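Hi F.,

I've been meaning to write this up properly since the lab meeting, where we talked about keeping a consistent format for the predictions we share between groups. The idea is simple: the sequence comes first, exactly as it goes in, then the structure tokens exactly as they come out, then a line or two of notes. No screenshots and no reformatting. I'm using this chain as the first example so we have something concrete to point to.
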Amino acid sequence: MAKKTTVRWLREPQEHDYSAAETYLSLLMEQKAAKNVVDQLQRAAMAEYAAKDIFRASTLSLLGFGNSRVEKDRTDIIRNKKLSPLLLFRDERAG
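Output, unedited:
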């Protein structure tokens, strides 16, 4: 039987996660709106969801093991390093 791997999380997202979120969101909306969303994310309470539910809700295709970011996170999990929590944003305009 394979050993279950536990993902360890940092208590808070890292500051660079917020700036990356703002950069990405500014591609989808006006810069001011993106900044407002990130300000809300910084004030938001943490919540916990199952990964399978997050993936289903996102309606995005999963990245494979060949993706460099996936490989880095996978290596960090194996090395028992803590990962930064996900920043999730629900765009009410998108439905």
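Notes:
The chain has one domain: 8-84.
DSSP finds four helices and two strands in the chain.

If this format works for you, I'll send the rest the same way.

G.
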